[in-house]
């Protein structure tokens, strides 16, 4: 939604184009400066931050809707995306929303009593992994600001989004042992210490260097590029990159990374 006219049309007639009472909310993770980041959105007229999301078009699949919502916020359409939970039982979602209002512009807009947006809403949670440097954050008439926030410094979020984020993070950490993830978070070429740092950051724990390298190399998901990264006069670690054929097979069939 880029204009006030489009915004008002959504509020008044959105149920003609979207499935009422069913939304997608996205925990979008990036990795930068050895920190795991989460993308937060600030809506115009609302005091606080939350996870980006949106409604599902009536002829849209769930995965296509999630991909569209992510592209609208990050400009990316090739990313790792996984559904992790359905939310509908929180007090916020069960109570009536009569009196809900929006103030995206200079004027306050109070929804009528029969608005389609007053009904209980069920949300499908997805988490996405994106390469931080490739993201182009894009706001619209409804979203005032998008920012990356360190996962350890997330404030109290709107609605039930803190609960959503906790579920997403826990699900991602569990999947880390069974699904490869680095391709969407690291540059094309990386060192073993860099990919170990990624895993340590996500898992929030230290890993044994030799054990991690040995088990990761044994999976044959990464290959030696025969290049080195020049850090200093006496430090030139090897550069690796993912073997995409084996990486995609692992995404499909799973792996066991016992670290």
UniProtKB/TrEMBL annotation:
Segments forming domain Nudix hydrolase: 21-173
TM region positions: none
Classification via CDD domains: NUDIX_NadM_like
SUPFAM superfamilies on file: Nudix (SSF55811), Winged helix' DNA-binding domain (SSF46785)
Protein name: ADP-ribose pyrophosphatase YjhB (NUDIX family)
The organism of origin for this protein: Saonia flava
């Amino acid at each position: 939604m880029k204009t006030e006219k489009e915004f008002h049309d959504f509020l008044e007639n959105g149920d003609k184009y979207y499935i009422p009472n069913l939304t997608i909310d996205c925990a979008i993770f990036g990795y930068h400066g050895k920190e795991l980041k989460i993308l937060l959105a600030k809506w115009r007229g609302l005091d606080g931050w939350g996870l980006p999301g949106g409604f599902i078009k009536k002829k849209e699949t769930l995965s296509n809707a999630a991909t569209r919502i992510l592209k609208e916020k990050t400009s990316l359409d090739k990313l790792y995306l996984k559904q992790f939970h359905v939310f509908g039982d929180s007090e916020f979602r069960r109570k009536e929303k009569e009196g809900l209002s929006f103030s995206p512009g200079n004027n306050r807009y109070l929804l009528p009593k029969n608005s389609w947006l007053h009904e209980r809403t069920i949300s499908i949670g997805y988490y996405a992994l994106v390469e931080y440097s490739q993201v182009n954050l894009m706001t619209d008439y409804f979203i005032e600001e998008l920012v990356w926030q360190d996962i350890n410094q997330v404030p109290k979020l709107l609605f039930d989004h803190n609960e959503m984020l906790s579920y997403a993070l826990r699900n991602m950490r569990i999947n880390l042992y069974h699904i490869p993830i680095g391709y969407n978070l690291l540059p094309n070429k990386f060192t073993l210490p860099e990919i170990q740092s990624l895993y340590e950051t996500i898992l929030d724990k230290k890993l044994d260097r030799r054990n991690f390298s040995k088990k990761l190399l044994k999976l044959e998901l990464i290959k030696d590029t025969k290049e080195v990264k020049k850090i200093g006069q006496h430090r030139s670690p090897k550069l690796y990159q993912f073997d995409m054929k084996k990486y995609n097979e692992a995404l499909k069939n799973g792996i066991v990374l016992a670290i």
